[in-house]
Amino acid sequence: MFGVGLLGHGTVGSAFASLLPQHAARIERVTGLRPELSGVLTRSRGSFEEILAGSDLIVELIGGIEPARGYLLRALAAGRHVVTANKQLLSQYGEELWDAARANGVQLRFEGAVAGVVPVIRVLQEALAGATIDRVHGIVNGTTNFVLTEMARTGMTFAEALRQAQSLGYAEADPSEDVDGRDAAAKMAILARLAFDTPVHLDQVRYEGIEQIQTDDLEYARELGLHLKLIGTAERIGKGLSVRVHPAFLYPGHPLATVTGPFNAVTVESEAITEVTMSGPGAGGPQTASAVLGDVISAMIPPASTPPTSEMLAIVEDVVSAFYLHLEVADEPGVLAQVARVLADRGVSVKSVVQKGLGDQARLVMVVHPVLESQFTAAREDIAALAVLRAPPRAIRVLEEEFG
Amino acid sequence: MFGVGLLGHGTVGSAFASLLPQHAARIERVTGLRPELSGVLTRSRGSFEEILAGSDLIVELIGGIEPARGYLLRALAAGRHVVTANKQLLSQYGEELWDAARANGVQLRFEGAVAGVVPVIRVLQEALAGATIDRVHGIVNGTTNFVLTEMARTGMTFAEALRQAQSLGYAEADPSEDVDGRDAAAKMAILARLAFDTPVHLDQVRYEGIEQIQTDDLEYARELGLHLKLIGTAERIGKGLSVRVHPAFLYPGHPLATVTGPFNAVTVESEAITEVTMSGPGAGGPQTASAVLGDVISAMIPPASTPPTSEMLAIVEDVVSAFYLHLEVADEPGVLAQVARVLADRGVSVKSVVQKGLGDQARLVMVVHPVLESQFTAAREDIAALAVLRAPPRAIRVLEEEFG
Lengths: 404, 404
Hints:
2 copies of one chain form a homodimer. By secondary structure, chain A is α/β, with parallel strands linked by helices. In chain A, the strands form 2 sheets. In chain A, strands 6, 7, 8, 9, 10, 11, 12, 13, 14, 15 and 16 form an 11-stranded mixed sheet that branches. In chain A, 54% of the residues are buried. Chain A is elongated. The first copy, chain A, is 38% helix and 25% strand. Chain A is built from 13 helices and 16 strands. In chain A, helix 3 (68-77) packs parallel to helix 4 (87-104), helix 6 (142-154) crosses helix 7 (158-167) and helix 12 runs antiparallel to helix 13. Chain A folds into 3 domains: 2-113, Rossmann fold; 120-282, Dihydrodipicolinate Reductase, domain 2 (2-Layer Sandwich), CATH 3.30.360; 320-399, ACT domain (Alpha-Beta Plaits), CATH 3.30.70. The first copy, chain A, has helices at residues 11-31, 48-53, 68-77, 87-104, 120-125, 142-154, 158-167, 176-179, 182-196, 215-224, 285-300, 335-345, 373-384; strands spanning 2-7, 35-41, 57-60, 81-84, 108-109, 135-139, 206-207, 227-237, 240-250, 263-270, 274-281, 314-315, 320-328, 350-356, 363-372, 394-399. At the A-B interface, helix 1, strand 11 and helix 11 of A face helix 1, strand 11 and helix 11 of B.
């Protein structure tokens, strides 16, 4: 018998509680031990102390910082393995928890915290342990990917697509942490910690959301042959590390360009291995519960915990990006020349430009070559100050095509 | 110190030998042990007995059945962990080797045997241990995927594309096991064993290759909006299991449709998790060496070996497929009616049909709805016997669209 104590009984928790007994016989065959639910803690019922006393492993599916953090520290200190899907907690108190796991010789597993059943945690921790990773790109928030897919497919506005996501269960009643990029930022902090062996706190991740995306950005994207995604990036830059989340256009050959709807996907790049991409349903009770159960099974077979960090890559703020730049301009001669001069003065080089519309519909839509973001921001501010601009400039990053 | 004995020093072996010292310090940090190459056995140099005596783990990269099988059985019997990338050996003598590993309480790992650095073995063994798998689809041979991609992209013939693959290093001097599907069949036998917990021998995998694919099959595919791939399938059918490899058309929404060039990809489907897809470079020395090194690191951290099989799903021969059917026919009235009657008599239902060309270029190209392959084969034989046929009918399976 192997006692599994469950903290939390929401969507994922209840899916896990029904999955465990279905697989108990098979797990016993693989591990030699039969897992059994030794207790469930809900908001109104159960005692943490009693559950802890009767469990070999604690599954935490409460979410948020407290009381989850306190429970897990007590469980680890008591020598219990821990499985959690809590991305907020790990992206803010991960080092504290990993230290506690190592100090007590127990495991702390968290496959369900990022990309649901897509096994990106395990792959970074184990399969790619023999590779030096250069970059991780991820679509790690299913809500925003669904919203962007629907906006592109139907021409809906952001608000309409978000309402549809809510009615289909792909967005929560309060979707603010999804749409503003903070949820994806927490997940990228965890992936960056594993890929680059450097402590990364959520506060060190720059993030932008998709609330500002306009339907016509997606129309121009289609004309330019691009796909718009909310992309998380963690990349080694010299001796530094940049971790960020922002909307970005992808060229069609990019492995993340075809990831649609509520799916998640992560691409890991390394010189030795080129790239590995993993994709699948990002969340949902049964999927996350399946990832949690995979962790429980692994914890029943003794391997190591997350090792201490040894790298201390500096966090890089200013990185090189290509940009799409959308300008609502006066319909008069010399506008393009003025804009081009500002860009040239800031060292920003134009890759392609389209002039569209007449009169008060006149627009300049362009893609510029990769440039330091600080340079681009300065150019954008200069352009915003031009008298010929009818509205603030809009800019979206473009991921350069790097894949055959 | 952790002694790693290396058997074989070809492309993968030499890449591994140079990778190991590069990562030794990092591996020591993770595992507490420093791995060192304790000996290398090549065709002309080294003694297996001496290498075995000085090693904690044996890496086998010789390939083929003997002497690899003998060496690995001796290594396992001597209590050494084993890491191998030998798909031929595992698809024919896997049970013998896994039994020996379990009997001696050591690990036998083989991530490099299927899809290079794409961590499909580990994901099936560990991450998806909590899921009941319904089906595995894979593009598991990079040579054939490169050839089909080039044929589609340039209009080259099979022979021309194969020569190009050879000149770029994507095909071996003797590519017969790649192009006839046997290499993919060996890999699918291994994946089926893990996904369905049933012993599967290479001889139980039906396979067809791509030698018969014509350039115009790819042209019609483009017109129909389809992608042609060499697809391996392992699927649960009632209480049975079908494992097979054949060319198949994919609809654009399929997660494997966009896998191009020498890449590999595997999709795992399960009711609970929907699907997970993994893709990346399928082979190449550095990629496979990286997968092998990941296995070595995992073996240094003690977990369990492949458990004994407990399922005994029957191997199913006759399965349901949709088909593309290409007929070179006489240009005369009533041909379509004759063909349609034969199909109807055999219970084969037409989904779409195109008549093309005139005179001795006249063709009927159709897609039929899913039907038992034995029924379709009977209909195809009846059609071949019609006097209006100018050449033997050509047929290629079509994977039905099942993904949003």
